[in-house]
What does this fold into?
Amino acid sequence: MPLLDIPPWGVQLRVFAFLKLMKITEGDVFEVSKTVTDELIRHFAEVSGDTNPIHLDEEFAAKTRFGKRIGHGMLTASFISALLGSSLSVNKLVYLGQTLKFKAPVFIGDTVTAIGTVKKIRDDKPIITVETICKNQDDTVLIEGEAVLMLLD
It folds into this structure.
């Protein structure tokens, strides 16, 4: 039966049943960790085209406020994508949006943990809002944000 032929309460029941099947509930927390290496930064620079010397040149970076090379902010943010794409109990989802606030730099050797917390599940559509945070091994917040995802059936 086409979706348009289902009464509104039927759509809500279908969405609710789908989310229950996927075992996602508000308050769920999930995480993934990865260590930032020189090789990872160089690969990211090659793939993204971002060859800013703050990421790649020790001598240049030594003269900055950070005193050494830093990883790309978007490299760190990509750990959120990895988190949502592989650690969530669903592997059929699409990003609808993501906010990011960069709070601190990531350095070579840092272990970044991306943490997601399900904050909201819509009643009328299979759309969830996830608080996203990246922290380093010292529990320093590197990135804060929020992802909006649509679950595919």
Q: What stands out?
A: Residues 1-21 have pLDDT under 50 and may be disordered. The two ends are 15 Å apart (CA to CA). The longest strand covers residues 111-121. The helical segments are 8-22, 38-48, 53-56, 58-62, 73-87.
